[in-house]
């Protein structure tokens, strides 16, 4: 008997006494929890997002839509980036103010090739203020998951206020669970048993979030 057969047999035994007309799963428990904590204005929700992103050691920038290209160019120059991965559906105007070499998001690229690229610029699917979390869903302006995990510098653009929600339940309503979701709370980091923090272990060492208004 395979491991799969053993696991399925245990599942069958565990649910053997459950009647077929039992209460559906989605109705089995009271879900009266708060959808968000507090009564914040839109501006305060965006401020909370910025605060929590910074608390996770992300670098937060604010600009208008007209300033976005210059802001991204400044961040790439400040990093000394010579190359940047560009998702296929990224608005070309976002990179109009920089001469950095564009590297298209290609299925054929190997991790080693992506590791030689300095930065990546993407949009996002939604941003959650209460947890300081950016969610990517692999959309055309975000690209494949790996392009936001291998390069050491990620610039992520969040449209304000349209892509900002207060809570995780509200964020879940905005995304499709069948898509490849990546939930990002600050730069990649881990701590050992002595709580020494090391960044850049499972993803970019530097996360810069641009909150752009007027898009």
Automatic annotation (TrEMBL):
Residues 49-212 form the LUD domain. It comes from the Bacteria. PANTHER family: LACTATE UTILIZATION PROTEIN C. This is LUD domain-containing protein.
């Amino acid at each position: 008997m395979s491991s799969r057969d053993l696991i399925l047999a245990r599942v069958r035994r565990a649910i053997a006494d459950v009647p077929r007309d039992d209460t559906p799963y989605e109705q089995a428990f009271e879900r009266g929890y708060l959808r968000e904590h507090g009564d914040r204005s839109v501006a305060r929700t965006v401020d909370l997002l910025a605060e929590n992103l910074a608390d996770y050691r992300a670098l937060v920038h604010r600009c208008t839509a007209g300033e976005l290209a210059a802001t991204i160019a400044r961040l790439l120059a400040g990093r000394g980036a010579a190359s940047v991965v560009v998702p296929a559906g990224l608005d070309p105007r976002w990179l109009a103010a920089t001469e950095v070499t564009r590297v298209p998001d290609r299925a054929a690229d190997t991790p080693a090739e992506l590791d030689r690229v300095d930065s990546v610029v993407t949009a996002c699917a939604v941003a959650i203020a209460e947890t300081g979390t950016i969610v990517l869903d692999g959309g055309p302006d975000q690209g494949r998951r790996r392009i936001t995990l291998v390069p050491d510098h990620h610039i992520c653009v969040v449209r304000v206020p349209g892509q900002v929600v207060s809570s995780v339940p509200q964020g879940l309503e905005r995304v499709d669970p069948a898509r490849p979701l990546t939930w990002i709370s600050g730069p990649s980091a881990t701590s050992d048993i002595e709580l020494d923090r090391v960044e850049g272990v499972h993803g970019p060492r530097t996360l810069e979030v641009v909150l752009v208004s007027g898009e």
